Amino acid sequence: SLSDMGELKSGTLRLAVVTTAKYFIPHLLGPFCKRYPNISVQLNVGNRQQIIERLKQGIDDFYVFSHPPGDLNTESIEFFNNPLVAIAHEEHPLVQQAEVSLAQLCEAPFLMRENGSGTRLAIENFMSKQGVKLNVKMTIESNEAIKHSVMSGLGVSILSAHTLTFGGHMGLAQLRVKSLPINSNWYFLWLKSKRPSAIAQAFLSHVQNEGREMLLTELARCEPI
Ligand code: PGA
After folding, report:
1. How far does the centroid of ligand 1 lie from the alpha carbon of residue 6, in Å?
2. Among the listed ranges 42-51, 197-206, 207-216, which one has the minimum average pLDDT value?
3. Range of the domain at 156
4. Are residues 33 and 74 in the same domain?
5. Residue at 14 is within a domain
6. CA distance 5 to 179
7. What per-residue confidence (pLDDT) applies to 3?
8. Looking at residue 7, which CATH number applies to its domain?
């Protein structure tokens, strides 16, 4: 309860989040840890498959997914939207276009996340529903490495718009691709058999009370002009 929160003096908050969530979780941890200075934090970051493994083992207090596994007995809170957008380097000819067709996007060399990535899963599901095929030139195991590869002109990609927030859009532009973004949402998840600790519950309410507005502001800042 809220009155218990004031009593939280020490302990460890253990979180495991997918790589698209690492762009905002630290911004929520900042004010939270300021409020509870004696709490320590263990933040694990991995792709969807890696975080599913941790969830199965019940290692952490809770987990952040945008494509939660369907086969586990979990409870979840839907937190915020996670739009996947197409990016290119700032000078890319497609950036100037008021509208880019999916076919045009599919012609460009595409930089794809690795197997096990939820981002990749969402892109593949979306493209197969649309009946189109991307021209995958490179497979890259990190959002940052993809962003830098896009900046250097190696190709285009689709990533969570949140990878562009908090200053992360330098050298990159969003493409206005018809029928994008791919919509997904983040969920805070835990095994039903393992209820969140008092610290974890305090963080969950902190996130829900203070997180959304900050994310809205940040997303608006990196929208295509
Ligand atoms: P990921 O992130 O691509 O690193 O697995 C998961 C997701 O946003 O679904």
Report:
1. 34
2. 207-216
3. 84-174
4. yes
5. yes
6. 44
7. 45
8. 3.40.190.10
